[in-house]
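Supplementary Methods S3. Input chains for the assembly prediction are listed below.
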Amino acid sequence: MSDSSFVIHNVFLVEDDEATRQRLVQAINAHKSLTVVWSCATLREGLAALKTLHPDVLLVDLGLPDGSGIELIRAARLLNYAIEIMVISVFSDERHTLEAIKAGASGYLLKDSDTTYIGDAILRLLAGESPISAGIARHVLKSCRKANHSLDFAESLKKRSPKLTKREVEVLQCITKGYTYYEVASMLGMSRNTITSHIKNIYRKLEVHSRGEAVFEAMQSGLIDAPS
Ligand code: CA
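Predicted structure tokens for the full assembly:
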């Protein structure tokens, strides 16, 4: 967290409910290290703005008037720059949750009348954590258990087993528990550069582009245990 207090992080917000959007903008801007660079209400505007803005964070609603926020998450992942993505939605069902995480979201918060927590959640996201509402985490774990018990899945996994090294599995386990990269580095006695190169290798081997996706894939593959 030490780095983030000295840098202003740009947040891009897509939310169609005007009152909610205004409350979120206010709550985010109340943090001295966060600023909303752009906010809009539709998928179309969001897709257009993503091409020119290079925000550090995309905070996106899923139910947009002209489509799903998941499309925006996919588009953001395809762009070649580092971006942390978090969903803020009223949808708490398994399908929306898993689709958003698979698409590349690292955080998933359920909408609540209280928005004061949002700035802290964004800072945690930037620090390497995955803020996920309690009801949502259950879907992810359930899906992992299902996958772990599927023989067909185990067979297909063997074929595409990404063969993480013992060290990479350790790193991934720590990340799953919500430690930041910095904390993992000091816990495992590594430099920050070493941890960065481990993370890059993990992403490459698992064919993923975000921390949320890496954790999801690794749990589904049985490479790491689901957090208790
Ligand atoms: Ca909406």
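The radius of gyration is 17 Å. Residues 72 and 213 are 16 Å apart (CA to CA).
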